[in-house]
Specification:
Blueprint (H helix, E strand, L loop, with lengths): L6 E4 L4 E4 L5 E5 L7 E3 L12 E6 L2 E8 L6 E7 L4 E7 L3 E3 L2 E3 L4 E9 L3 E7 L10 E4 L3 E6 L2 E7 L3 H6 L3 E2 L4 E7 L7 H21 L8 H13 L1 E2 L4 E2 L22 E2 L3 H11 L2 H16 L14 E2 L10 E3 L11 E3 L11 H14 L9 H17 L18 H20 L3 H21 L1 E2 L4 E2 L15 H4 L7 H14 E2 L2 E2 L14 E2 H13 L3 H14 L9 E2 L6 E2 L5 H14 L3 H4 L1
Antiparallel strand pairs: 1-2, 2-3, 3-4, 5-12, 6-7, 7-8, 8-11, 9-10, 11-17, 12-16, 13-14, 14-15, 15-17, 18-19, 20-21, 22-23, 24-25, 26-27, 28-29, 29-30
Length: about 600
């Protein structure tokens, strides 16, 4: 049975997910939003197709780890006798001719460690979302998998007949397999593998050396940082929400969505985390992606002024959603969705998300392309929309599909848009624009505090005039709308603890939505709660809960979107960028400083 006990490999072009037996059960190639060539993760009980496996016969157990400070995965498989094999998996990424070489390729190296282990190599890619099998052609040392829009070549120094016919054989010597573009290698397979392994491993170790790490929890932060980097599509700077589609938020919930796209709502939190890590190039790439969205004639500057909440990694605006009939879903819990109709929704928090993230470019002296008056003027157009829409109904941060209300978080983000534009104007020495935006921010703030406050609860609530709570209100002190010491924030924190705390973890909301009442905790909301506890001085509680969240990660140190509080099982799309960002931010906030550590 598939679980989310998965490892991730990738190179900022595509990603692949490996289970604990080193079976590649998910990979979209040649990029994150492509048709998955390995779709076994959502193929239900069909274990023979859409998978890439080096199977150890008479399997007994496995061990798996990442190489230290690297994106290289090492798996050891043990049979019931004395047979042991070791599989090393990675996607090439290293500097070559003053640029980053990142081909959409998977390199696998299997070697015997003990006994006479018998293995079977099974590679069964599919296309059209698991519906069809490619045509297979054979060369002297390679197989070609021919599909309408992609041809993959598997080159190996192993017995090609055994690979093609999936025949078991004794692994007497190391075997290398390179799966990638339909191109001939210019050097022997093993030599290429060894060279690419050395350079890729060195690349990641070097990348980690420049991270600004907290004193505590360094291993967890490094793993989260590498995973966040692996979720970036470097060519455009986009950062996807997750690598998968349709892993349900809870068992048989129908809450199955395609997350292989870039949500603007994530922008501020991602930029904030990358800035604190010192991952400047990744941060600048993401800021450039956002700037291109702002400057485009689609979405941000459309005739109606509406800024859509989500885009494709190449700025694709139309992400039409459909249900795949050929894949039964994760553990047969369909549907499997392709595309995401959230792009059509009205979500008024996006104006603030974009401006909050873009503010970094006006103040950060490290950036090659700092913000200027031209970008400020484009952001002002979004700010005017924020003034217009701060008290207008929308689908909200959590993308309610069948109803609209005036959501407090969306209104606060509209306030943040005006507040940051005032700060940018001051930085650019534009006093009239500074006064304009500061006045707008103050007017919106007063309106929010008037309409979103519930006297009976002594708390801000999720919608104007409502009674329900929403975990996004925990972010008000982070965004700067209320100081953590403000009685209104403290009252809101108290009510969130009362209504949204599920065990030790935090639900995003408790009120029924389009699919009923939420069943699981939303991982980033628990991190927001941890940050809020720290902000109000409840540091020991925050640290204890942070340790609990670290323990909730899978064996490879990764998190998905959701957590079942009672069982501790991970649910939702994987790996979830929001969750990894939350982990990084909380660790930075809670850790002892280097100066006080010794």
């Amino acid at each position: 049975m598939n679980t989310l006990d998965l490892a991730v490999i990738g190179n900022c072009t595509f990603g692949a997910l490996l289970d604990q037996k080193a079976r590649i059960v998910w990979a979209c190639m040649p990029r994150f939003d492509s048709d998955p060539v390995f779709s076994n993760l959502v193929a239900g009980n069909d274990s023979a197709r859409g998978v890439y496996e080096i199977e150890l016969l008479d399997f007994a157990r496995s061990e798996q780890h990442y190489r230290e400070n690297s994106a290289v995965v090492v798996t050891r498989l043990y049979d019931s006798a004395d047979g042991v094999i070791e599989i090393t998996d990675f996607a090439p990424r290293f500097k070559h001719f003053d640029r980053i070489h990142r081909p959409p390729s998977i390199i696998r190296h299997a070697r015997p460690l003990s006994g006479s282990p018998r293995i079977r190599i099974r590679i069964s890619p599919t296309y059209d979302y698991g519906e069809r099998d490619p045509e297979v052609t054979r060369g002297s040392n390679h197989l070609r998998f021919v599909m309408p829009h992609l041809t993959l070549r598997l080159t190996t120094d192993g017995p090609i007949t055994y690979v093609m016919e999936q025949t078991p054989f004794i692994l007497e010597r190391p075997v290398t397999l390179i799966l990638g573009p339909d191109e001939s290698l210019t050097a022997p397979v093993d030599e290429t593998s060894r060279e690419f392994f050395k350079k890729t491993d060195e690349y990641w170790r070097e990348w980690c050396r420049y991270l600004a790490l907290p004193f505590e929890w360094q291993d967890a932060v490094i793993r989260a940082s590498i995973t966040l980097k692996l979720c970036s599509y470097e060519e455009t700077g986009a950062i996807i929400a997750a690598m998968t589609t349709s892993i349900p938020e809870a068992p048989d919930s129908g809450r199955n969505w395609d997350y292989r796209y870039c949500w603007l709502r994530d922008a501020y939190f991602v930029v904030h985390a990358l800035n604190r890590l010192g991952a400047t190039k990744t941060m600048e790439g993401f800021l450039n992606y956002i700037s291109n969205i702002v400057a485009s004639n689609v979405g941000a500057n459309a005739a109606d002024g509406h800024l859509q909440p989500v885009f494709g990694i190449s700025q694709l605006a139309e992400l039409d959603e459909s249900v795949c009939g050929s894949l039964p879903g994760y553990r047969n819990m369909g549907p499997v969705r392709i595309g995401n109709s959230a792009y059509t929704q009205i979500q008024n928090d996006g104006y603030g998300s974009v401006i909050l993230a873009s503010t970094q470019s006006f103040f950060d002296r490290r950036l090659d392309h700092p913000g200027d008056i031209s970008l400020f003027e484009k952001l002002e157009r979004l700010g005017e929309q924020a003034i217009k829409l701060w008290d207008a109904p929308d689908a909200g941060l959590w993308e309610l599909r069948t109803r609209q209300q005036v959501h407090t978080y969306s209104s606060v983000m509209c306030w943040a848009a005006c507040d940051r534009l005032a700060k940018i104007a001051a930085q650019l020495e534009m006093p009239q624009r500074q006064s304009h935006w500061a006045a707008a921010a103050e007017s919106i703030r007063e309106g929010i505090l008037d309409h979103a406050w519930n006297d009976e609860l002594g708390s801000l609530v999720s919608t104007f005039g409502g009674r329900d709570l929403d975990a996004s209100l925990l972010c008000l002190q982070e965004i700067g709308f209320l100081p953590a010491t403000d009685p209104r924030f403290l009252g809101t924190l108290e009510q969130i603890e009362r209504h949204l705390k599920h065990g030790q973890f935090i639900q995003r909301y408790a009120a029924p939505d389009d699919f009923g009442s939420p069943e699981v905790a939303f991982n980033v909301c628990t991190f927001w709660y941890i940050d809020a506890l720290a902000a109000v001085g409840r540091t020991e509680e925050a640290r204890a809960l942070f340790e609990t969240m670290l323990a909730a990660r899978n064996a490879m140190g990764l998190l998905s979107e959701d957590l079942a509080p009672q069982s501790g099982e991970l649910w939702g799309n994987f790996p979830q960028t929001y969750s990894m960002v939350g982990l990084i931010s909380s660790a930075m906030r809670l850790s002892k400083s280097w100066e006080e550590a010794y």
